[in-house]
Amino acid sequence: MKQLKLFLKKLFKRHYLDKKSVTLNHKRIYILPTQRGLNFALLVALLLVISFVYNNNLAYLLSFLLASVFFITILHTFKSLAGLIISVSKAHSAYVSEDVVVDIYLDNPSILERFNLTLNLNNTKTIDLPATQKRLVTLNSPTLKRGWHYCEPITLACQYPFGLFKAWSVLHFEVKALVYPKPSTENNPFPELAGEQAQQGNITKGHSDFYGLRDYQEGDSIRDIHWKSMAKGQGLHSKDYRGDLLTELWLDYSQTFGYDSEQRLSQLCRWLIDADNSGLQYGFILVGLTLQPSSGSCHFKKCLTALALF
Q: Which residues in 143-287 belong to E strands, given as ranges?
């Protein structure tokens, strides 16, 4: 069964992508009976046979009534999706092993309320969409490696009103997001010497400078607790101050720890997060790339982007 699904997926794979916004019509909506619908059709056929054998008018009436419900349901299930406007907003960046969050907008321009709409990517969301309303739906796409992450096609489906038929449409948006290396869980101290300025001796020192973050220990002053990392759910840490340290920090790939490039990038990512959380000025050095010391979200994202595309 799994191999058959993979074969059908490859067979019907489209070679072009949808635009940012798609309006569903008869060319984009597929509809088939569900298992419940097939059972319902079998019941109607059985009633017709009984009606014919016993020549019972009430059995005929019941058979035709149920058959009319069966066929009218096709129209109502189709209309549950027809006319909807689906657009993709953006996909948010994430770290390896985290989910990329994709923002999808569903717009219902008609005066008909849409019930039991199901969107599926790697998770499933079911919503009701009121008439003339627009709603944001977030879907998740898991990541396995750093770099550009391309999301799978999105499926919008509906089985309203009785679950006898399933109408669906497959949306092939080009949804991609950057995936950064997974930050190391080890709290290794910042490198003390890095970059051309350190090699040339242009190092500025100070007294009791910030050195990094360490795990909270009983007895630490409340003033040294790093509340910002705690608010982000990274655990309880204390600020580590030491004398005669660099006030200009360089984060250099060549000074990272690890057995391979992914572990070293992971350590460099951890240093970036710690330096940004601490509000430090830091430079960034990768193979073939040097970013001068700076701070702020723009500088932080440039460094993370370089790590993702390394």
A: 147-150, 154-158, 165-171, 176-180, 205-206, 209-215, 237-242, 245-246, 249-252, 282-286
**Would you state the pLDDT for residue 85?**
93
Superfamily of domain 11-180: Immunoglobulins (2.60.40.10)
**Spans of all domains in the chain:** 11-180, 195-210+247-308
Instruction: Give, as one character, the DSSP assignment of residue 288.
Output: T
Determine the pLDDT at residue 255.
Answer: 83
Question: What is the pLDDT at residue 222?
Answer: 64
The residue ranges of the chain whose pLDDT is under 50 are 15, 193-208, 243-246
pLDDT at 206: 39
pLDDT at res. 114: 93
Chain mean position to CA 198: 41
pLDDT at 87: 92
Buried b (16+ CB within 10 A) or exposed e, 86-114: bbbeebebbbbeebbebebebbbeeeeeb
Q: List the structure tokens of 204.
A: 């500025």
pLDDT for the residue numbered 7: 56
Rounded CA gap, 117 and 114, in Å? 7
First to last CA, the chain: 39
Q: How far is CA 260 from CA 98, 105, 305, in A?
A: 21, 41, 20
CA distance 234 to 98: 15
Listed in sequence order, the residues at least 6 apart from 159 whose beta carbon sits closer than 8 Å to its beta carbon are: 34, 77, 116, 165, 166, 167
What three-state secondary structure class fits 102? strand
Q: What is the pLDDT of residue 232?
A: 67
Helices and strands: H and E segment counts in the chain: 7, 19
